[in-house]
Amino acid sequence: xxxxxxxxxxxxxxxxxxxxxxxxxxxxxxxxxxxxxxxxxxxxxxxxxxxxxxxxxxxxxxxxxxxxxxxxxxxxxxxxxxxxxxxxxxxxxxxxxxxxxxxxxxxxxxxxxxxxxxxxxxxxxxxxxxxxxxxxxxxxxxxxxxxxxxxxxxxxxxxxxxxxxxxxxxxxxxxxxxxxxxxxxxxxxxxxxxxxxxxxxxxxxxxxxx
Length: 210
Ligand code: SF4
Prior knowledge:
Largest sheet: none
CATH architecture of the largest domain: Orthogonal Bundle
Order of helices and strands: HHHHHHHHHHHH
Low-confidence stretches: none
Number of domains: 2
Mean pLDDT: 95
Shape: elongated
Number of helices: 12
Distance between the termini: 20 Å
Bound molecules: iron/sulfur cluster
CATH superfamily of the largest domain: Hypothetical protein, domain 2
Helix content: 55-70%
């Protein structure tokens, strides 16, 4: 794993989140909730108008669900997401003094927030680390041989002891980029992959060329 971390750092020096929240914790939380079954590019595009209209937790909490729905319609699951965003903002205002909480326990109480989003927030906002077991992380960890490639919680638990806390957030952001560029779901480019000698399950074609 240490070698894989090093290689990914070399290929993707930045290792930053693709969601353009401008460093605002609440906005990152909103965007992470919107990103379920939606591309980061779409979330970034939709968020510009959304935050012009509702710039902070208080304005989301006071919003009509229909007004949020209208602005996030193209993100998919827009009814559920709008309702979650309103309730989540209300809870942040009423129970956390308008600030996004940092503990896993508190984050998981927020509507629309599961472990993936909670770990993203803990890592990117609070510097506490966290394995963000999204589709790329799960798939690539399975192929590399660190986990089962299926279960998000297992992936998180398998990777957590292997990746130093302070590197976990950037590592997961790099996996997203690597998953898009090289180790894609349908057609991994194993023959051109910098990690192939460390990979437990490369595609059979590439295996024969090793
Ligand atoms: S060798 Fe193939 S399956 Fe393994 S990490 Fe690289 S692209 Fe993914």
